[in-house]
Design a protein that fits this description.
Elements: E1 8-13, E2 20-23, E3 25-27, E4 53-55, H1 60-69, E5 76-79, H2 86-97, E6 102-107, H3 116-136
Parallel strand pairs: 1-6, 2-5
Antiparallel strand pairs: 2-6, 3-4
Protein name: Pyroglutamyl-peptidase I
Organism: Carassius auratus
Active site: 87
């Protein structure tokens, strides 16, 4: 009996973002800042003994190229550093638990420079492209913990 694998797409607002930013990987170490509840792991990592970096099985550069070619008027970029804060911590944990079948998208604050409608169109296009790539990669190795 085959079990269905689930995937997760996380979206976070970054005050530094000027584009819709597709994060390619999550990092385990380097967490130094307190979160909103004044918590920071004593070990400074997400998962003690976990791999330093986990890449998404989704090729974010391919997603970026496809969404850019759709002409939505929203800039899309790819990053390999989600910031060693709540977003990176969430992404790493999701990648670890989901065996690489997760995504994280950073968006700029509303109106800086995109409207809610523009961001919604861009996120829809991004997610549809991710689903397309995941569908085409069925049956391939989905865990990239060793990279």
């Amino acid at each position: 009996m085959e079990t269905a694998s689930s995937s997760m797409v996380h979206v976070g607002v970054s005050g530094m973002a000027t584009t819709v930013t597709l994060e390619q990987c999550g990092h385990n170490q380097g967490y130094m800042r307190l979160d909103n509840c004044s918590f920071c792991p004593e070990s400074r990592c997400c998962l003690e003994g976990g791999p330093d970096c986990i890449h998404s099985v989704i090729d974010m550069d391919t997603v970026r190229k496809r969404v850019d070619s759709a002409g939505l008027g929203v800039s899309v970029s790819v990053s390999k550093d989600a910031g060693r804060y709540l977003c990176d911590y969430t992404y790493y944990t999701s990648l670890f638990l989901g065996e690489g079948r997760s995504a994280f998208v950073h968006v700029p604050p509303l109106g800086k420079p995109y409207s809610a409608e523009q961001l919604a169109r861009a996120l829809r296009a991004v997610i549809l492209e991710m689903l397309e790539l995941m569908e085409n990669n069925k049956g391939k190795k989905h865990c990239l913990h060793d990279q």
